[in-house]
Amino acid sequence: MGALESIILECFDDLDHMKKRTTFRFIAKNFMVDYRQRKEEERERLTQTSSRGPQYHVVVHLRKPHAYISQSIGAGGGGDEKEAPGGALTTTAVYYVNTDEQYTTPASPATIAHSPSVYDSLEGCDLFSGKWVHDNDSYPLYKEQECPYIPGEFACGQYGRMDSKYQQWRWQPHACNLPRFDAKQVLEKLRGKRIMFVGDSVNRNQWVSIVCMLQAVIPPGRKKMHKIQEVKQVQDVSLLTFKAFDYDVSIDFYWAPLLVESNADHPTKHKRTDRVVHIHSIEKHAKNWVNADVLVFNSYLWWGTPTLKILYDSLEDSTKYNVVTNHRAYKMVLRIWSKWVRTHINHARTQSYFMSMTATHHKGIDWGMQDNDNCLNETEPVTKEHFWESGSDLKMMRTLELTLKNLKERGVDVKMVNITQLTQYRKDGHPSIHRCPRYLE
């Protein structure tokens, strides 16, 4: 589809120290940032550092140019591909603007302003309050057949989806404009960086999409996809890495749908009728995350079963466990995750984010269809403002918000990327049955 998420982050980098430290901050009320105070701090710092070269305004632009960048979720929202009538929505991109350059804001919706005035106009702008605008002049940002890294589970055009309008939508906030993605500028400003997405299929979708958007401007032979599997006892852990050699850029995805060790950790063989988590075991996964410059976490779909088994010893000893509700288990795991983030991440180097939940669109009755309908054959977004489907679990979202609030009170600022309302509208954005047949078994 056109875009799925749109959100802007800002960063000012000193050119002489660009590889040493980058500070991301969200420009949004949702993240409780005191904009005016921050502007004063920035002016002060810019005055102090003006002799060291131009400053850069960095925009991280999260978009979803494809509905086929998506993964199945279970009938209960639990991530089981076999049961899924649809698939989850999501994807990412990063955009950098040199604030020392001057641009003219174009009137056409095909090109959104690339200028310092865009930054100024974002004061007080709620980036998450907006609508999807059809834009077939500038979207899609890439075509399915032109990206060699799209797996069969996401390639809905290849597997029978005939319409294409779902690729031509962009997110338009009510009160401001967002910059358009520029792959070459992204690669240049990410030079020497490692970006890692951690979580379930939603974050894998994001990773695939940003790779597809970036690889289009990289010459053949100057890019490569690596798949690294670490075998430990009965589990395989997948780390997928895209390399852009000329920029020394690494964009990674790490499969950890429940964040801690679980019976769903195999990168492909994770269909389970139950959910089992080893509550105190995060290090097996987390040791792979520590050297990233940017970490983007997510974990939601796999918590959709009513109860989970919580192990306190090991996955191999499955006789000692407690059965708890999904909400309680989610809270327990986020507590373990937040402790790890607090004690193991170098926050002077690594910026951390957590994606909020995405809509599942399992029940057509939510948007006026029959009760047994779902997202199959949907070709248009929901236009009703503030639409909210019945399958989205607000209690889960509040648990995440509270976890991040507690982290911030302890000096660790993990930003929540609140894409939930954006995805509510995109009932047309799921691959549904249009994927490689083996993913429908």
TrEMBL record:
It is a single-pass membrane protein. Belongs to the PC-esterase family. TBL subfamily. GO terms for cellular component: Golgi apparatus; membrane. Keywords: Membrane, Signal-anchor, Transmembrane, Transmembrane helix. Residues 124-177 form the Trichome birefringence-like N-terminal domain. It is found in: Membrane. It holds the Pfam family PC-Esterase. This is Trichome birefringence-like N-terminal domain-containing protein. InterPro entries: TBL, TBL_C, TBL_N. Residues 178-435 form the Trichome birefringence-like C-terminal domain. GO terms for molecular function: O-acetyltransferase activity.
